[in-house]
Design a protein that fits this description.
Blueprint: E1 3-6, H1 13-21, E2 25-28, E3 32-36, E4 45-48, H2 59-66, E5 71-77, H3 86-92, E6 97-100, E7 103-108, E8 116-118, H4 122-134, E9 140-142, H5 145-148, H6 154-160
Parallel strand pairs: 4-5, 8-9
Antiparallel strand pairs: 1-3, 2-3, 5-7, 6-7
Helix pairs in contact: 2-4
């Protein structure tokens, strides 16, 4: 099915362009955007840089998406050291990701299996939630206080899109 989301302020052009390269299609209205999934998700190459280039804040989420894409996706992080801390946690789910300096190569599609993973920051936590939803079995994301700093009622929003997701007390 298609996901309907509210547009937020900021530059979405490059993220949309990358999703289009991956095979997604869009209907963009005045205040809404409908994203139609790709028939076959294709690999993508991303380089994060200062605005107006691809935003580093979307890097982890696109890495999670690349886990389901066919082929080798590369993500080069040019802005921040330690922005790949989520890689080891994604690997716990079965992700095939190779790191070389500031570049991660994701070999997809990956067969993901649920596991216990730990969020290291806001962006990593959202990537782990996305990958966990794509994994077979149950994924428990620990330290979700990182998630709560940037996402309001994420579980309810994902449930509205059909996800099976619960917040548990640790």
């Amino acid at each position: 099915g298609a996901a309907r989301v509210e547009l937020q302020r900021g530059n979405t052009d490059l993220a949309i362009a990358k999703l289009e390269q991956m095979g997604c299609t869009f209907e963009i209205g005045k205040d809404t955007m409908t994203i139609h999934p790709a028939q076959t998700l294709r690999h993508v190459d991303i380089i994060t840089q200062e605005y107006p280039a691809f935003p580093t804040d979307m890097q982890a989420q696109f890495m999670a998406l690349a886990l389901r894409a066919k082929g080798a996706s590369t993500i080069e992080e040019r802005l921040f050291e330690n922005r790949f801390m989520h890689v080891s946690e994604l690997q716990r789910l079965g992700a095939e990701i190779k790191l070389s300096g500031h570049t991660a190569t994701v070999i997809g599609p990956c067969e993901l299996a649920g596991a216990d993973v730990m969020a290291t920051d806001l962006r990593a936590s959202s990537a782990l939630v996305l990958a966990g939803m794509a994994a077979e079995g149950t994924t428990n994301v620990h330290r979700i206080y990182h998630l709560d700093r940037g996402y309001e009622n994420l579980e309810q929003k994902l449930r509205a899109l059909g996800a099976t997701i619960d917040r548990l007390k640790e």
